[in-house]
Structures are given as structure tokens and as C-alpha cells.
Amino acid sequence: MSQQFNLAVPRVNNNPFLPDGRIHRLSFFLTMLVLCFISSWFVDFSSVYNASAGTVNVKAIGWFPVIVLVLQLFACIKRCRDIQYSPWSVVLFIIPIVGFIYGLLLLFKGSKYPD
């Protein structure tokens, strides 16, 4: 008697605060778009950059860019799971041109799992 092995399909998780699960292309695009808009809206360069002294007030920016970066990494990790790539491949975003191409791949490559 033969047994069939069922591979567990990761569930879809659209919660941006958790790195588990997977997300589809549209959810990935909207998550990245919203995070980019939020980060650009919160950073007011007129209060952060002192033109006369040529300095940047790091305390005015705070931890917000780090939080946005972590949420973007969570979205990329979930998208990697959806297209069956290793979540560690997110490290490719460190390399400038390769990171841009990899981001386009995450955006346009279809899911490997049935919906």
C-alpha cells in the first residue's frame, strides 16, 4: 500500500507585523507601496536637515526607518515563501543593482502554490 506525502502549504498571512506565512503579488505590492508612502510622509526633511550647519538631526528621525525596514523585510520573506525561494535570499537586497532586479522578480513572479 503506497502512502502519499502531502507537503504542507504555508498559509496566506497578510499581517505585516509577522514574518510567517506567505503573501501574494498584490498584497506584496500594496504593502511595499504603503510602507514607502508612510516612511516618506513621516520624514520631514525641513525639520531633520539643518542646511546652515550641514548636519542631520538623527534624533528627529528616531527608530522609524528601522521599523519600516523590518516590515519591508517581513513582506519580502513572506513573498519568497510564496514563490518557493529561500527566505535567506532577501540578503540579495544589500547589493544595489541585484537588489532592484530581485525586487522586480518578487513583484512579478507568480505563486507556486494553488490558491
From TrEMBL:
GO terms for cellular component: membrane. The chain crosses the membrane at residues 26-48, 60-77, 89-108. Keywords: Membrane, Transmembrane, Transmembrane helix. It comes from the Bacteria. InterPro entries: DUF805 (IPR008523). Pfam families: DUF805. This is DUF805 domain-containing protein.
